[in-house]
Amino acid sequence: MEHGPMHPSVSQKIHWQPDLPVRHFNYTPRMQNIHGDGAFVNRKSSSIVTPLPPAFAGAPLENLKDPVLIDLAATGIVRTAVAPFERVKLLMQNQNGMIRSGRLPQPYNGIFDCFARTIRKEGILSLWRGNIAIATAYVSSKAIHYKSYEYFASRIDSSWSIFEVVAAGGFSTAANLFLVYPLVYAGTRMANDVKTANDVKTAGYSSKRQFNGILDVYRKTLKVDGISGLFRGYTMALAQVGVITALSALLRPWYQYLSIQSQNNDLGKAILDCVFDCSGSLASYPLGTVSRRMMMTSGEAVKYKSSRNAFAQIFKTEGVESFYKGAGADILVSVAFKGYALLLSHLYAAYFAAMANGGDGGRPGFALSIKWKKDGVK
């Protein structure tokens, strides 16, 4: 078979490999241009359990009723696992704006200080504040991506020009981000809703939270700014997706080459994914910062006039370094996500391999190999 073995290893079935033929998605090089899955929220959410080609009949994972649902559930689980890192990243990214608006008494002195102060003032469970909205946005974005990808895959053929394919991908991305953006907004506002002290006031800063939940975020925003308040910063978020997409296209040949070199090494593949994720994240991070800072002004008395005005004001009053506040925590989010995803995929692989090879009445064994080998290799 020109694309590879008919029955690749269990590890390959769980991890996306660029040289595997995903026939039911009718994947072609042209289809690479419509991977518009809302990179603003999903750039770290590559498939954990990938939908399988029909050619893999009899494989253990074929017993699953719907691998897509398993992938979506796994994404939600992993996003929840990394939620503490996500909240710290958002707090550090928006701290200058929160200080100027009077909602934060003093800046954080690094990632560990942010963790410590948040736990001390709000409790350890507060590290998951805003996670319901953010995790829902990630899972919803991926679900929309699956459907839109399947839709375009059934319609794009060789008669489509590259411009039409790119336009389809751009429309898919913009629509996806538009649909989940209110959830991203709500999660961002809740994550940045801090308490400065417990049941007391500290130097004029109230310990009472600004929002009492997702619905309260929407109610207060709609009351002051209307529906447009839920989409403040959308254009900058879309620009961030554009930068990530362009960089992805530029680095794709290198990524595919290195993926093939590390296809039998799950740890190496995870490290490779993490490096490329972080590259896109750092390149587009200033755009994400401006988008989040604009979100934070919705429902407030003082707002940025436009995206350009936000850029200019932040640069003039805070300097270039402000655009990269929280970038270190963002890298930790990516590393933690890949680590949890790798662990989860190995648990899946171990379970289904045990189900396929177990003896004693079909009861699975429990051996787990950290580095998966090709089928037939002892």
From TrEMBL:
GO terms for cellular component: mitochondrial inner membrane. Catalyzes the exchange of ADP and ATP across the membrane. Solcar repeats lie at residues 62-155, 160-258, 264-351. It catalyses: ADP(in) + ATP(out) = ADP(out) + ATP(in). Belongs to the mitochondrial carrier (TC 2.A.29) family. GO terms for molecular function: ATP:ADP antiporter activity. It is found in: Membrane. GO terms for biological process: mitochondrial ADP transmembrane transport; mitochondrial ATP transmembrane transport. PROSITE patterns: SOLCAR. It comes from Theobroma cacao. It comes from the Eukaryota. Keywords: Membrane, Repeat, Transmembrane, Transmembrane helix, Transport. Pfam families: Mito_carr. Monomer. InterPro entries: ADT_euk_type (IPR002113), MCP (IPR002067), MCP_dom_sf (IPR023395), MCP_transmembrane (IPR018108). It is a multi-pass membrane protein. Its main location: membrane. This is ADP/ATP translocase.
